[in-house]
Amino acid sequence: MTNSRYADKVVVITGGSSGIGKGCAEEFVRAGAKVVICCNNEEEGTSVAANLQAMARAQGAGCASFVYCDVRRTEDIQNLIDATVARHGQIDCLINNAGWHPPHKPIDDFSLEEFRELLNLNLVSVFTACKIALPHLRRTRGNIINMSSLVASIGQYHATTYAATKGALTAFTKALAIDEAPNSVRVNAISPGNIYTPLWQEAIDAAPDPEQCRADGEAAQVLGRMGCPEEVGRLCLFIAAEATFTTGVDHIISGGAELGYGLKSRTE
Ligand SMILES: NC(=O)c1ccc[n+]([C@@H]2O[C@H](COP(=O)([O-])OP(=O)(O)OC[C@H]3O[C@@H](n4cnc5c(N)ncnc54)[C@H](O)[C@@H]3O)[C@@H](O)[C@H]2O)c1
Description:
Order of helices and strands: EHEHEHEHEHHEHHHE
Bound molecules: nicotinamide-adenine-dinucleotide
CATH architecture: 3-Layer(aba) Sandwich
Oligomer: single chain
Largest sheet: 7 strands, parallel
Radius of gyration: 18 Å
Structural class: alpha/beta
């Protein structure tokens, strides 16, 4: 359904070609926004942006385009922000969504180099994008949304490196929210639980029993299913468009995965 909740606002979404980022891009285009997606896969990014643009044209509002950017490279992020401002003149919302969850394994099997690389992708890239986009966001009194994870606050089996990157991202979000409040720039985090995306499918494919892995993923929520990217997109749109007195908050969207007690250890 078309609406004008974010009409003519300019939104940059990293990793907007797939999963949650794509779900966000669709919601913002539907709301009349000018959306710039980036990722480090030229073919996928170009094709997804073309579909988004067709959607915008059909509804007569909003638009979408793609800029290649590997968020691990500072010069690519600089180019993403410069290209967006050259195209649209401003930035109202930055959604730092690009990230990766490596296969599960104990700490003994993670190398330091793997941890450093993941920090670079999931955390340092966000610091860099915020730093480069902030002069523009201060001008529009815009906002930043960082895609963290539920596991930042509850931990996850065999995921020390990933949980650490997301925990740091949530902490960074709160600290930046304090610093940017005088500039009227809001900074929020979203912490999804299990959202069914190509990243989740990667985990299913790598599991010894893929069918069981999918079923366990669905059963982990009190709502009895995984979330979908559009549901996260709708939360992002609400934070950007309507939640104008909300900053420094970690917004959990998990279908209740963290609620109550469960069987977590057995003695026999
Ligand atoms: N799916 C979930 O259940 C879940 C849960 C919690 C948090 N998250 C987080 O949400 C975000 C999106 O996850 P998803 O499940 O949609 O994953 P996905 O794999 O479907 O999409 C990831 C996107 O990031 C892009 N990307 C990856 N590396 C990049 C790089 N170096 N430079 C630029 N773009 C890059 C990909 O091209 C893709 O567009 C991630 O930060 C992830 O950690 C996902």
